[in-house]
DNA sequence: GCCAACGTTGGC
DNA sequence: GCCAACGTTGGC
């Protein structure tokens, strides 16, 4: 099982939108970047991901679960792009900010910190554990 | 609102 | 296949 991180602008589609979809989940549409798409194609049902708010908040606010593997993105006719479906699992009791990630030992290699433009990115098990702890979730 | 970083496009 | 121009993302 793998770990990921999804970025979204909260005023377009934020954590509250995701939780409103409940267990039915929602397609993670709109990715138009090969690296991000390739990451989605590597996802399996049951993989977990962090939900990050870019621009506003700049913090990891919750955890989502992949509930459908990559399939064509219904928001475009361009066959190059597809997307997974995710559902909200739980919110972080204490959202973890970008600022905290930047200074936390063990997180300096995260794409979140040094490749700010990648909107869907892999997270290592070590990074996952560190952020869960910072976010107030039991390990 | 600005700008740096980066990805993509298209001319050659 | 190279590279300049352009567009977009996202932190500040």
Q: Can you describe this structure in just a few lines?
A:
The chain has helices at residues 10-13, 15-20, 34-41, 98-103, 111-114, 125-135, and strands at 3-8, 26-27, 48-53, 59-72, 82-97, 120-123. The protein has 139 residues and is an alpha+beta fold. The protein has one domain (3-135): ph1033 like domains (ph1033 like fold, Roll), CATH 3.10.590.10.
Description:
The structure is a single chain. With 139 residues, this protein is α+β, with helices and mostly antiparallel strands. The chain has a single domain, classed as ph1033 like domains (ph1033 like fold, Roll), CATH 3.10.590.10. It is built from 6 helices and 6 strands; from the N terminus they run βααβαβββααβα. It has helices at residues 10-13, 15-20, 34-41, 98-103, 111-114, 125-135; strands at 3-8, 26-27, 48-53, 59-72, 82-97, 120-123. A 6-stranded mixed beta sheet has the order 2-5-4-3-1-6. The chain starts with a strand and ends with a helix. The mean pLDDT is 94. It binds a DNA duplex (12 and 12 nucleotides) through residues 7, 9, 32-35, 54-55, 58, 98, 115-119. It comes from Paragemmobacter ruber. Residues 2-134 form the EVE domain. Pfam families: EVE.
